[in-house]
Amino acid sequence: MTPQELVSAACPKIGLLGAVFYFHPKTVATGKEHNLDGFRFYFLGRGGVLGDVEPAVVQSAFGYFHGDLVAKIWNSAKERMAPRAAATLYMECCRRIGRDAFADIAGLDTFCASAEAVVAAVDPPGLALYAGTAAEPLPEDLPGRAMQLVATLREYRGSVHLLAVVASGVSADVAHAIRRPDDTATFGYAEAPASTDADRAALAAADALTDTICAGAYAAVPEADRAQFVATLEAMETALAG
Fold first, then answer.
1. Which residues contact 182 (CB under 8 A, 6 or more apart)?
2. Mean pLDDT, to the nearest integer, of 128-135?
């Protein structure tokens, strides 16, 4: 399995698995204990690794949300909890999902070693949200550690993809409208912007560039462990579905 094949097989799974904890009932319940609804806990917890910053900084890192929505949610959320404290709490929610679901999965030690090799191989300039997430301390237990690493690798590809989209010449709002046509209001837009065939072609090129960049870091996974890396992600999918 080549690094490119590993990226093609693993990253779609990581994209889904790494977001499972965002609005999980246990995560939402934890947020409510701190007077944060699900959306505010998501913004403050995920973006809190950036620190107590202005909304425009969060928007630049998240990429696809309308600036007015970011300002409204971020500013009202940080009145209720400090961003860094929320980030710490949010990451603990992430670990808890792994602890609840992954205890019986074999090979988590090899998976974690491979995932940590990818993280160590990443060149972080321009990847602020990823870098902040990757800086969060990893727990000692393998189920919690594995889940945190999956979330971190999700932020890696997401941050790289945002750079690739900008480099392709497609604006973030147009890219979002093409990729998520049913989520216009959720991301703060009154209506979806128009897109062209050229925009769609450029976004496809951005996808390809994203995979090419990510393959450089995923090459750090030992060739003998790549199939197991994907198999472990599949086991995680099964565990969480159950």
1. none
2. 97
With the C-alpha atoms ordered 29, 32, 152, 205, is the resulting torsion angle positive or negative? positive
Alpha helices (runs of H) in 18-141, residue ranges in sequence order: 25-33, 38-47, 55-62, 67-78, 83-101, 108-121, 128-134
Cβ–Cβ under 8 Å, residues 21 and 144 = no
Under 8 Å between Cβ of 109 and 142: yes
The residue assigned the tokens 């072609």 is 201
Alpha helices in 50-82 (DSSP H): 55-62, 67-78
Residue-wise pLDDT for 102-111, tens only, equals 999 999 999 9
- Other CB atoms within a 10 A radius of the CB of residue 123 amount to 9
Contacts of residue 69, defined as CB under 8 A and 6 or more positions apart, other chains included, come to 187, 188
Structure tokens at 206: 């951005």
User: Do residues 158 and 123 make contact, with C-beta atoms less than 8 angstroms apart?
Assistant: no
End-to-end CA distance of the chain: give it in Å, rounded.
29
